[in-house]
Amino acid sequence: MINFYKMTGGGNDFVVVDNRKDQLPKDFSPLAKELCVRKFSIGADGLLVLEESDVANFRMHYYNSDGSRAEMCGNGARCIAQFAYLLKAAPQKMSFVTDAGVVEAEILERSVKLKITPPKDLRLDFPIRLDPGKEFNVSFINSGVPHTVLMVSDIEKVDVEELGKTIRFHKEFAPAGANANFVLVHDKNNISLRTYERGVEQETLACGTGAIASSLICAAKGMTQTPVTCKTRGGENLTVHFQKNFQSEVEPLPPGDPFTEVYLEGAVKVCFTGNLQLV
Question: Is 230 an active-site residue?
Answer without folding.
Answer: no
